[in-house]
Design a protein that fits this description.
The chain is an alpha+beta fold and 668 residues long. The protein contains twelve helices and 38 strands.
């Protein structure tokens, strides 16, 4: 279910991995110099991302973000580190962010995206000479660049850029009427297209003009073709049939469709490029399941001849999601990330098919990796008590390379996170994370917060979660559940809530509360509940069926799906629920938190961004208004110029503070 996945794991989460000595410092509760984490630390935690390794494996680039409190913004900057970690330097330091570092094939240059000097034209491509540090802006796309990759010979770039602004001959001050031919068409009239960019002349030639969007380009090893992903056909915005295409890297060349099955292949939201085998004979990609199952279906690793044909599924017997494939240098195996029951591991499978090998497993969340010469791997990984850092992996040797959060972690006493399991009402085994406050005392009952993730197809994982740590530092036990509907436990577990929201998943999260109460951990008289996106929706479902919670927080949520029809960006509502005029009872059933709001007794705080098109503000306004009418304590917080995610640092802090204030106000 694509609609809520982008925040399934994101709300408050900051991932990382550091050395064992630092872990011991963080866990040493007896250390008198250590302190509890505070909201001030939200701006002190650095998020590390986008690890990239040079082709010879000698250097690693990555981005590190920092909060600019004065300007209320977050800036990304690029760092570079030698493979052995002995030499590290910060490459960029402008007031504008830099992202997407990419080494040239010969390792002499690093390109990146930045909006500096772009005169409101969005991100442009910059070229940095690694020998002397000289940088220059080399592109000037009218609306900026969203993605790019180097050609194997280092002479060209494949670029994804937005259409230039449409010219208008209207000289009147009155704006022209808006003509709608697709949902929210007035918000996104232009398209993302594939361009060929010449590094010598800085000339950009469009390769894929037309009405469709293109994403995730990747060069063939000989530099002759480019593979990319697009969603085409009649009413392309109303289906999720993404396919892999190729085109000869020459203006005027014709596009060739490679995959033809009706499923999401390399859906851009997965961040998985189609990749060529070293000999150029195969393309590996991520293949989704039947369209009717939406994102409930497991997506597999597939390979297909570069001329098209019948794909082979290399993970057909693996009932787990895989993403981000990369061929090994010898072309005999493919590396990928494997999502599995609260973890994300790095795995490998032979191209010919066979046993899947986990190269790096355990209680961790690996969010990105890159592969370089001499079979060197660089990856980004996290654990429950460690924000994001970059690691190298060669053979079985794992080594920490970046230490952006080391100084902060050395000061803190953090909460511990355990994995728990229990049975739901119908006997289904459910898994969750139990976060205990620092200095937790066995036998003492604690105020407890039930945390619900978005998606619903997503999962909480073994990663650092700032909001969990803040709640625990304020004395709360946190129970973060992966109920049915979540990914990581197989397709049947995920699709158990298909067209049946707020039923089995509510039973599962309530079973989590029952479990921690039975363990003597949760104080039954001091229970709270909250979540964002589908986590907010599930919060609404839960408090409409159970009155045990003293306070609730519902972020970016909807309860009246019937009234929401046609107001958000999801065509898949009607794929899953049917159309309201034929399946009215289904729509009414999933809308019961609004239609039976008189059953809600829990004081509830609603929050939303005023520019949210995923779940528009009006849906939170409805629930706020109905609880006001019923006399239930409620409040609505609207964040200006924010979309489905809250990105402004001051608003992120404000949101967490309001959670704490709301829970505290109601006796938790």
């Amino acid at each position: 279910m694509k609609r809520f996945r982008e925040l399934a794991l994101a709300c408050g989460a900051i991932a990382a991995l550091i050395s064992m000595s630092l872990i011991n410092m963080s866990l040493n509760v007896q250390a008198t110099s250590n302190r509890l984490i505070t909201l001030n630390d939200l701006s002190a935690v650095h998020q590390v991302s986008e690890p990239q390794i040079s082709h010879d494996g000698a250097w690693i680039a990555y981005t590190v973000n920092s909060t600019d409190i004065k300007n209320d913004s977050v800036n990304n900057h690029i760092y570079i580190t030698s493979w052995d970690g002995s030499r590290t330097r910060k490459l960029t330091n402008s007031k504008d962010s830099e992202s997407s570092p990419r080494f040239s094939p010969d390792g002499k240059y690093l390109t990146f995206l930045s909006s500096r000097q772009s005169e409101s034209k969005g991100n442009q491509i910059w070229l940095l000479n690694l020998a002397d540090g000289e940088t220059q802006k080399i592109s000037d796309f009218p609306r900026g660049v969203s993605d790019f990759v180097w050609s194997p010979d280092g002479k060209r770039l494949a670029v994804i850029a937005e259409d230039p602004p449409q010219k208008t001959h209207n000289e009147q001050k009155t704006a022209q009427p808006i003509v709608i031919d697709r949902f929210k068409g007035y918000l996104e009239k232009s398209r993302q297209h594939l361009y060929l960019f010449d590094l010598a002349t800085h000339k950009a030639d469009i390769l894929t003009p037309g009405e469709f969007n293109e994403y995730l380009p990747e060069w063939s090893p000989d530099g002759n073709k480019i593979a990319f992903v697009s969603k085409r056909g009649v009413d392309f915005h109303r289906h999720n049939n993404w396919d892999v295409y190729t085109i000869i890297a020459e203006p005027g060349a014709k596009v060739r469709q490679i995959t033809t099955n009706e499923s999401p292949n390399c859906d851009p939201s997965w961040g998985s490029r189609p990749v060529w085998s070293p000999d150029g004979k195969l393309i590996a990609y991520v293949q989704g399941g039947p369209q009717k199952l939406l994102e409930y279906a497991v997506y597999h690793l597939a390979v297909i001849p570069t001329q098209g044909g019948t794909p082979r599924l290399l993970t057909a017997n693996l009932d787990r999601n895989v993403v981000k494939p990369r061929f090994t240098s010898d072309g005999k195996s493919i590396l990928f990330l494997l999502e599995d029951d609260g973890n994300v591991h790095l795995a490998k499978v032979p191209v010919a098919g066979g046993k899947i090998e986990r190269l790096l497993a355990g209680r961790r969340n690996i969010s990105a990796f890159d592969f370089g010469g001499d079979d060197r791997i660089v990856l980004l990984s996290s654990m429950p008590q460690e924000p994001s850092e970059v690691f190298t992996l060669k053979g079985s040797e794992l080594r920490s390379i970046s230490h952006q959060n080391q100084e902060l972690l050395a000061q803190l006493v953090l909460a511990t996170t355990e994995e728990i399991s229990f049975k739901s009402k119908d006997g289904t085994q459910i898994h969750a994370f139990l976060v205990k406050p620092p200095n937790f005392q066995p036998g003492k009952k604690y105020p407890t917060l039930l945390q619900l993730h978005g998606g619903p197809v997503g999962q909480y994982t073994n990663q650092f979660m700032f909001d969990w740590q803040i709640f625990a530092a304020h004395g709360y036990v946190v129970v973060a559940v992966n109920p049915r509907g979540s990914s990581g436990r197989g397709e049947a577990f995920s699709k158990a809530i298909y067209a049946d929201w707020g039923n089995k998943d509510v039973q599962d999260v309530l079973a989590a509360v029952d479990y921690v109460e039975a363990q003597g951990i949760a104080d039954p008289s001091r229970l709270g509940i909250g979540g964002w996106s589908y986590g907010g929706i599930l919060t609404n479902y839960t408090i409409a069926q159970d009155t045990r919670f003293k306070a609730a927080v519902s972020g970016a949520s909807i309860s009246n799906f019937l009234a929401g029809y046609g107001t958000n960006e999801f065509y898949d509502y009607e794929q899953e629920l049917g159309v309201p005029w034929k399946n009215l009872n289904t729509w009414l059933r999933v809308s019961f938190p609004f239609l039976h709001a008189d059953r809600i007794l829990t004081p509830t705080l609603f929050l939303s961004g005023d520019r949210d098109t995923v779940i528009p503000l009006q849906n939170s306004e409805q629930m706020y208004d109905v609880l006001k009418t019923l006399g239930v304590d409620t409040q609505l917080i609207i964040y200006p110029e924010q979309s489905h995610g809250i990105n402004k640092p001051s608003y992120q802090r404000d949101r967490l503070q309001r959670y704490l204030t709301w829970y505290g106000k109601h006796g938790l």
